[in-house]
Amino acid sequence: MGDYMVKKGISSDLLPWVEKYRPKRLDDVIGQKEIIKSLKAFVKRKNMPHLLFAGPPGIGKTTSTLALAYELFGENYRDSLLELNASDQRGIDIVRGKIKDFARTIALADVPFKMIFLDEADALTPDAQNALRRTMEMYSDATRFVLSVNYSSKIIEPIQSRCSTFRFTPLTGEDIRKMLKDIADKEGLKVGEKAYEALVYVSEGDMRKAINALQGAALLSKNITQEAVYRIAARARPKEIREMMNMAVKGSFIKARELLDKLIIEYGMSGEDVLTQIYREVPNLDISEQAKVKLIDRIGEYNFRLVEGANERIQIEALLAQIMLIGKQEK
Asked: Cβ atoms within 10 A of the Cβ of 167, count?
C-alpha cells in the first residue's frame, strides 16, 4: 500500500506510521529471528515451498511476506506478487477466478515463480479451501502460495500438508521498544521511559497496536507521556485496575464500583477491555495461588457471558462481587 501511494505521487508523510515504517528487507524485520533466517535461505536459493504463517495479529506475518517478495523480485516485486485479503474475498469464485488466472501466468522476473499472498486465509470457506488445494497442486511450478492465518487449525489438513508452517510468536517488550525508539528518533519525539512502558503494556505483543498508540499520542504533543498513551489506547493504567481489584478483595465493594465508573467514563473502556486488564493483573494480587485459580475461572465464565451478549456493566460489577467473595474466603 505504501509503494502504491508513493507511485501515485502521495507523500509518505500522509501514510499511517504502520505503513510508513514497515521494514522493507528481511534484515530489518523485528523479532522472529529463526523464521527470518529460513526466509533468507529461500532468497539465497531462489526457491521455496508453499508457506503457512500462523500467529496472532501484528507480529510480522505480512511484513515478512512483503520483505521476502522484495528480496526475491526486487523493486518491482508488486508485478510478481498478488496480495489478497481472504476475509474480504473468501468464496470459491475468487479462487477459480483471480487466483487461478494469476497462478497460471508465466513469471517475468529472474526468479522462476510468482507469489500469491492470502492474508487472513483462515477466513476462506471450506469450498474455497478445497478449490485452493487443487490450484496449489496444479500450478506449483510457476507459483508459490503464502497463507497468513491467526488460527492454523481452521485451514484444512490437505493445505497444511502442502505448506511449510512457520509459527510466529508475540513480540517481546524489547523488540517493540526497539522499533518505537527508532520511529521516535525519526519523528523527533521525546518519549519518557514510563511512556515506553505504557506503549509496551497496551500493545500486548502487537507491533501495530504499539505504533498506532505512539502516532495517536504524537498528534497531541511531541512530548509523549504515559497518560497520553493510556488515553489514546483507551486503557487504564495497571495500578488503577490493581487498586480496583484490591478494594474488592478487601471487601470495599462500593469503592471498587466507584473506581469502575471512573474507568468506564474517563477512558471510555468497554466491558471486555476492563475484563482483559483484570485478567492481566491477577498474578499481581496479594492472594493465595488457589484464590487466583478461582478468580481466573470466574473471569473465564464472565468473558463467555460478555461474548454471548450479556449486559457489560452488570457482568463486570458481578465479577467485582465475585472478587470480594473470594477475598472473604481468603480471610
From this structure: 11
Dihedral of the alpha carbons of 43, 47, 52, 53, in degrees to the nearest 10: 0
Domain boundary assignment for the chain: 2-167, 173-232, 238-330
List the one residue out of 154, 328, 317 whose CA is nearest residue 249: 328
Report d(CA 138, CA 208) in Å as an integer: 36
pLDDT of amino acid 138: 83
Annotation: CATH topology of 238-330: Zinc Finger, Delta Prime; domain 3 (1.20.272)
Domain covering 2-167: architecture: 3-Layer(aba) Sandwich (3.40)
d(CA 160, CA 146): 11
Residue 247 CA to residue 224 CA, distance in Å, equals 31
Tell whether the torsion through CA atoms of 34, 39, 45 and 49 is positive or negative: positive
Fold classification of 173-232 is Helicase, Ruva Protein; domain 3 (1.10.8)
Cβ neighbors of 152 (< 8 A, separation 6 or more) are 52, 54, 122, 160, 165, 167
Helix (H, G, I), strand (E, B) or coil at 78: helix
At 210, list the grid cell: 504499539
Q: Do 279 and 299 contact (CB within 8 A), yes or no?
A: yes
Rounded to two decimals, what is the model's pTM? Answer: 0.82
Q: What is the DSSP string of 251-302?
A: T-HHHHHHHHHHHHHHH---HHHHHHHHHHHGGGSSS-HHHHHHHHHHHHHH
How far is residue 73's CA from residue 114's CA, in Å, rounded to a whole number?
9
Written as one letter, the residue type at 181 is K
Q: How far apart are CA 24 and CA 63, in angstroms?
A: 8
**What pLDDT score was predicted for residue 3?**
53
Query: Block means of pLDDT (10 residues each) for the chain, length 331 residues?
Result: 48 78 91 92 91 92 93 86 72 66 72 87 84 83 89 90 92 92 93 92 91 91 90 87 92 91 82 90 90 94 93 92 89 70
Name the 3-class secondary structure at 231: helix
